[in-house]
Fold this sequence. Notes:
The structure is a homodimer. Chain A is an alpha/beta fold. Helix content of chain A is 44%, strand content 14%.
Amino acid sequence: MATLPPLAHRVGSYRPSKVREVFAQANAPGMISLAGGAPFLGDLPFGELATQASSILTEQGAVALQYSFGVGLPRLRQQIADVMALEGMDVDPDDVIVTAGSQLALEAICKVMVDPGDVVITEGPCYAGGLSAVMSYDTDVRHAETDDDGLVIDKLAAQIDELIARGKTVKMVYAIPTFQNPGNTVLPPERRQALVQLCSDRGILLIEDNAYGLLGFDGETVRAMKADAPEQVAYLGSFSKMFGPGLRLGWIVPPRELVGVLKDTVETFILNPPTMGQLQMSAYLDGYDWQGLLERMRALYERRCDTLIAALRGSMPASVTWQRPRGSFYLWVKLPEGLDSEDLMVKAMARGVVFVPGTAFYIDGQGHDRMRLSYCLPTEEQLTKAGTILGELITEELAR
Amino acid sequence: MATLPPLAHRVGSYRPSKVREVFAQANAPGMISLAGGAPFLGDLPFGELATQASSILTEQGAVALQYSFGVGLPRLRQQIADVMALEGMDVDPDDVIVTAGSQLALEAICKVMVDPGDVVITEGPCYAGGLSAVMSYDTDVRHAETDDDGLVIDKLAAQIDELIARGKTVKMVYAIPTFQNPGNTVLPPERRQALVQLCSDRGILLIEDNAYGLLGFDGETVRAMKADAPEQVAYLGSFSKMFGPGLRLGWIVPPRELVGVLKDTVETFILNPPTMGQLQMSAYLDGYDWQGLLERMRALYERRCDTLIAALRGSMPASVTWQRPRGSFYLWVKLPEGLDSEDLMVKAMARGVVFVPGTAFYIDGQGHDRMRLSYCLPTEEQLTKAGTILGELITEELAR
Lengths: 400, 400
C-alpha cells in the first residue's frame, strides 16, 4: 500500500490554468484558434536552419550534445547583448544568464526574491503564464490598474504605499511595458521613468518582461526601462517571439547585485541551458539576416491584425470596442454590458472559433468583459472567417 | 539610485557549490579532469544525428521550432516508457512528464512537496547537484548512512523514527539506488524492498534517481524500485548519461496521484520541454541501434575504469582503498588518516590533475577522506597518467 506525505503549502497557491483548458480544445479539427501566443514560423529559413544544425552536429557534435556553461555559451551571451542594444541597453555579456525559456527566468527571480506572503504586483490584466509563475511561491499577488497606455503610475504608487502602511512587504512589480500581453499597451516614456523612480524609492525590484519589443508594426523600438535603470530592473528576454519557442531559450539580465544568486538558481534548475539549441540560435543570429526577416514578420502581423479588425468592424455591434495594436500578437476586445467572455467562448467554440476569455488574465474575477484575440498564427482567410463568426455571435447574443 | 528588496529567506539555504569551483579550473589547458560527470560522446553517430536534425527542420521545421505539449511529445513519452521497461517498469506514457533535464524534475518534486523545515533524507554521500536542489527550498537535509551496498535500511528506519519522534516531518528520501553517484554502490534487491516498505509505512515519498541504470559493465540491468512500488516512488530518468546532456532532456514518472500537480509545476517552469530537442531524441531512439551503441559504451567505460584502477594500483599505497565499480562513471576512493581530499585536490591541480573532493557530496563536513575520480571522459592514456600522478602525490604526502 502506497502512502504519500502531504504536498507543500505553496501548492495551494497554484493557479488552475484556464488557458490550458482552452488550449486543450484549440487544436480540434476545423477549429480556428485565436487563443495562442504562438508566432508564425512559416517564413523561417528552414533550409538554412537545417544546414546549420547539420554542420553543428558534424563539426562539433561532441560539444553540442555535452554539458556546457551554466550561464549559457559566451558567443550567445554576446549576441543577446547585441540584440538588447537595439532597445537602448548597454549590457555586459557577463551579466546575461541564458535560461530554458524566459518563463524559467521569471521562476528563478521569484525563487530568489519571494517569501510566502510577500506582495508581487502585476498589471491587471497580466500574461497568464507570468501569473502562474509569480503565484506559485505562496505570493500575495495584486493587480495594478491599467489604462490605454498601460500601468497608471500614480495609482500604483498609492496602492503600494497603502500596502506598505498595512505592513506588507512589496517585493516586485512584474510588468510588460512594451506590447503588453494581453492589453497590447505601450507604456509611455514618462510613465517608465516614474515607474523606475517609484520602485527605487520603495525598494522594489522591477521586472521588465520584453518578449515582444522587436515586433512593433512601424519597426521602431521603444527604449527599455533597463536602459536607464540597469540596477533596478531585472530584464527578461526571449527568442520565442522574435524567432521561435521550440528551442526554449530566454534570458535574464538582473541588477548586477543579483547576478550571482540567479546564476546559482538557474544552474540548480537546469545545470545549463540546452547546448545544441544555443548553438543553433547562435548560428542563426550570426548567419542569417534575422532583422530583415523580422521586418517581414512585422508587416505580416500588421496585415493579419488589420484583417481581423476589418472582419470585426464589419460584423460587430459598435458597443464592442478595442484599441488598435501598434505591434505584437493580441487584440484586447472590450465587451458591452450583458455579455460574458467565458460564456461567449463556449458558444464560439461550438461555431469553430476559440479565443481566451479575459478572466484568464486576472486573479480577482475581472475580465468577464474582455476577450483576447490572437491574430499571429491564423491565415488572413481564417481571421476574416473567425472575426465574422465572433461578430455574428455577439450581435445575436446582444439581441437576445 | 537603485534600491533592491531583501532576498527570499530560502536563499540562505543555498549551497555554495564546491563542484562549480572545481569545474571552473577543470578546463585549464593541459589539465586532466577526473572531475566531471560528462559522458564520452565521441562514438555517437554524428553523421546520422546531423541527417536527422536536418530532416526534422526541413520536413517539420514549423513544428520543431514551435511550442508543444507541456508534458512532452507523445512519441517521446512512449519511447521513455519503452526505455523504462528495460528495468522492469510497466509505465503508462500518460504518466511520463518530460523535463529540461532530470535536475529540473527534482526541482519540481521539491517545489511540490517541501515546506520550509521539512526533512529530506539523502544518501551520504549524495550527488552534489541533487543536494543543491533539495537544499534550495529551506529544507532540513539529512544524510543517511551507507555502506558498500548503499543505504543501510535499518539505520535509516531508526533515523527516520527518531526524527518523527522529535516532531519533524520527513517528506522524502532521495536515492540513487543503481550506480550511486558518487559511491557507485548498487542497492541489493532486499534492501530496495525494505526501503520501499519503510517509506510506505512512514508516508514518505521515495525519489529514485536513475540516470546511470543502463550503464552496468556486464550489461545486466537492475530492477528499479519503481517497478514494484509505482505509487510510492517518483522516478527520475535522464538521457544525459545514456545519450548526451546537450539536449537537456530528462523525465519524471511520479505516483499517479502527483502527476497532475507535477505537470502544472513543470509547465510553469518551462511551458514545454524543448520541442526540437525532443524530436531529435525521438528520431535517434527510433532510427539508430542505440542499445548496440550503449553496449560499446559500457565496454569502453569498463576499460577506462580498469585503466584508472591499474594506474592507481601501481602507484598508490595500500592504505588507499576503493570498491571496484560495476558500472557507470565514478571511482569513490577512500584515503587513509592524515590526508585531506580538499588539500590533495589543490596539490593535484598543481600537477595537472583535477578531481572532486569528497566534501562536495556531503553537507555536514564529511568527505575529507574521500575523492571522486571520474573515468568516463579522459582517454586511457590520460587516465594512466592521472592515476600515476595521484598515486605519486599521495605516496609523497603520506611519507611527510
